[in-house]
Amino acid sequence: MTALARPTNGRMIGGVCAALARRFGTSATTMRVIFLVSCLLPGPQILLYIALWILLPSENKTRTAW
User: What pTM, to 2 d.p., does this model score?
Assistant: First the structure.
């Protein structure tokens, strides 16, 4: 299982959709479309995106030198 981290490559704004796409095994474009469609529904989608942007570490910060 891969750690949930924002990738350094393939990110558009914050890399949240790319990280979620990698975690769930789908393309980043599909995840972005799902996010945009979900913004049409009532709810805190934008706040959730911002919270994940702040809370998820960047990929280069999570690598260890083992």
Answer: 0.77
